[in-house]
Amino acid sequence: MNILEIIEKKKNKEALSQKEIEFFVDGYTKNKIPDYQMSALLMTIVINGMNDVETAYLTEAMMNSGKKINLSSIKGIKVDKHSTGGVGDKVSLVLGPIVAACGAVFAKMSGRGLGYTGGTIDKLESIEGFNCFLNEQQFKFLLKKSNIAIIGQTDNLVPADKKIYALRDVSGTVNSLPLITSSIMSKKLSTGSDAILLDVKCGSGAFMKNINEAKQLARWMINIGKKLKKDVRAEITNMEQPLGRMIGNKNEIIEVIESLKGNGDKKFMELIYSSATTLLIQAKIVKNEKEACKLIEEVIKSGKAFNKFLELIENQGGNIELIQKTNWWKPKYKLEINATKSGYLYLKNSVILGLVAVKLGAGRNKKEDIIDNEAGIELKKVTNEKVQKNEILMVLYSSKPIDKNLSNEVKKTFEINQKPKNNKIILAKME
After folding, report:
1. Catalytic residue (one of 110, 183, 190, 274)
2. Least confident of 31-45, 167-181, 197-211, 398-412
3. Range of the structural domain that residue 264 is part of
4. Which of the four pLDDT bands, split at 50, 70 and 90, describes residue 236?
5. Is residue 82 flagged as an active site residue?
6. Which residue is catalytic, options 90, 168, 233, 245?
7. With 90 as the cut, is the pLDDT of residue 111 above it?
8. Is residue 162 annotated as part of the catalytic site, yes or no?
9. Is 183 a catalytic residue?
10. What is the pLDDT of residues 311-321, one digit of tens each?
11. Side-chain half-sphere exposure of 424, counting CA atoms within 13 A
12. Model confidence over 145-197: pLDDT tens digits?
């Protein structure tokens, strides 16, 4: 078997066998296949596609390229949630403590942010002392102790994906359903969870720009889960506007705390309730949506969900006393954006808001960039809220002086209308 024959076969639109797929994944991971040949193969896959069987083989081969985490020693159904990336996306940090407080085991491996999408690990690391990089034994210990642990991706987990994704990024081969599906699912399936909820973002602030594309990606990932005997479900969610009212790191942790105390933004909590309901049904903690909502409401009102968040932070070395202080977040500079007229606000471009947050210091363009945890954006008003002329719509924050020209960029992200607009956050549910 050799790589040229495999390239030729895919160039002729033929399906690859499991052994052929394992051969090129293993060969490239171990540096036996050069970049130029792998780039050629990836381009043929982008152009000619892969069927669902090939995609399942590719996912499995990538998953088996490194160490897999075995959580079978932990009782119960282990659940995980994956988002395809968004602006202000702190969902896992609210969702995890809620489902853990309800009795489910929330075993999550997260990544850092790059570009306009924020990373769960970066938000957690804004908490003094928090350690995301636990070994497998520590991860399992905390899951048994507290039902929840959130850790960073390790180097020995799915090395094939790490190497192939880096090549896709520079060879124009990112936009391919089989390659996207295998990349996401190989990582998710290698972490040992039994059930996975996929939050597939759709809209201007997402990779999938329309609902049909988002549904197609979700269906591919659900089918891969079924072939590999995992319970995978999906929600298609709106990414025209940011999630919640905070974009950044420290300020998003503050919003997480407020949400767990029952003071979360209405639309944001609608998504939390929906996702938590699905995970609790997958974990067989409840039988239906009515039971789930009652249990979710109980753990929030009783303080159990917030206490579970504190437990998560303390378990992983974070300073829980510091984050509960009112002056924990203290940016030095701010720039207010005001309404130019009265009406109903409509946020229409979360990408620009995400990019502005990066310019303020809240995100990174390169992996080496250092994040300013004080930087970010606070949305004083969100979509369909009534605003008065000159009222503050949002505030930009940073540890460094803020370029006033950023206000011109921010003004492109909203409009003020005479009537509210349709603003569904959950566009579809799939299983």
Report:
1. 183
2. 197-211
3. 78-322
4. very high
5. yes
6. 168
7. no
8. no
9. yes
10. 999 999 999 99
11. 12
12. 999 999 887 778 889 998 998 898 788 888 888 999 999 899 888 888 999 99
From CA 127, how far away is CA 135, in angstroms rounded? Answer: 20
Q: Average pLDDT of 74-87?
A: 90
Give the pLDDT mean for 20-25. Answer: 97
Count structural domains, the chain.
Answer: 3
Is 187 considered catalytic here?
Answer: yes
**Burial (CB count within 10 angstroms: exposed 0-12, middle 13-18, buried 19+), residue 404:** exposed
Catalytic residue from among 10, 78, 81, 82 = 82
Residues 288 and 371 in one domain: no
190 & 313 share domain = yes
The reply to whether 332 belongs to the active site is: no
The answer on 178 and 307 residing in a single domain is: yes
Residue 202 forms part of a structural domain? yes
Please compute the mean of the pLDDT values over residues 125-132 and round it to a whole number: 94
Is residue 116 scored above 70 in pLDDT?
A: no
Cα distances (Å, whole numbers) of residue 208 to 87, 116, 183, 199:
14, 15, 16, 12
- Residue 116 and residue 222 in one domain: yes
Q: At 354, which CATH number?
A: 3.90.1170.30
The active-site residue out of 80, 89, 122, 161 is 161
195 and 266 both lie in a single domain: yes
> What single-letter amino acid sits at 405?
N
